[in-house]
Amino acid sequence: MRLPLLLLALCSLHLSLAQIDMNKLLQQRSQQQQGQGAPPADGATVSVEEDNDPYVPNTFIGSFRMEMHTYKNDKEEKDSPMNVRFASKADMTVVQPEVKDKGTQDMRMLTDLKNKWQYTLMTDDKGRRTAMKQRKTKVSVKENKTDKSPEPTVVRTEETKVIEGHPCRKYIVTTDDGTWTGWIAEDLKGPFMDMARNMVKSDALTTARMPKDMEGFPLEYEWVEKGGKEKMVCYIRELKVGAVDEHLFSLDGYEVMELPSFAMPR
Q1: How does pLDDT run along the chain (266 residues), one tens digit per residue?
Q2: Which residue range is the domain that position 185 belongs to?
Q3: What is the pTM of this model?
Q4: Cβ-count burial 158-168 (b if 16+ within 10 Å, e if not)
Q5: CA-CA to 200 of 20 to 30 Å: which in 6, 140, 194, 224?
């Protein structure tokens, strides 16, 4: 199935959040090395490779907080909402979840796009700072050519409203998996496009094109799966467009440890 680039990028964000948990990260890397892991959907072939694509700077420069609510059978799930802070400059991106448990380590993921490094930054309850460093990777997806899923339907409606000071237009995207409804600020460059480009191999993006009439930054959106049992609602808060604090991207005071680059299946 072909997804619009916007939806693919949102999936990429969730992937990056999962990588922040170091135990899960190491377990996933070990499974990849052994050729294990969940089977890909729709018969597609999924692999993780070292990022050798040419450097392309971020188009979104700024920061925001993303508030994500998840529901199952019309009831909000226990760990919902999840808040994630995001910041980017031309050559670096930072993603940091806000943890509810005060005993949990402070963690964030820093990606150096130009030098092709990923860092998981951790501060323990004693103030010790550690940075796990590894070569930047990308997910490569090869679709099942026999998949005959219909193309997504994208509708740009006439409905508008102002969010975070920006005029937004309502879009509705329908796929065979469900319906995505979003309010897009068409005057802003969307950070999710940057994330998709920097987390997914360029050959995979050719099958996940962003419709030309759907450019911008979704400041609110809702995803409802086809059966209606699962739903996610997201709000962008505290949006700031323009240069952000340099200390967010700094490794000062961190003890840097390099993780081995595992052999990854192709």
Answers
A1: 344 444 445 544 444 443 434 334 434 444 443 333 344 445 556 678 888 889 999 999 999 999 999 999 989 998 889 898 999 999 999 998 887 665 556 788 999 999 999 999 998 888 899 999 999 988 776 666 665 667 778 899 999 999 999 999 999 988 888 898 999 999 998 887 788 777 776 554 444 444 445 678 999 999 898 888 999 999 999 999 999 999 999 999 999 999 876 544 44
A2: 5-258
A3: 0.77
A4: eeeeebbebeb
A5: 224
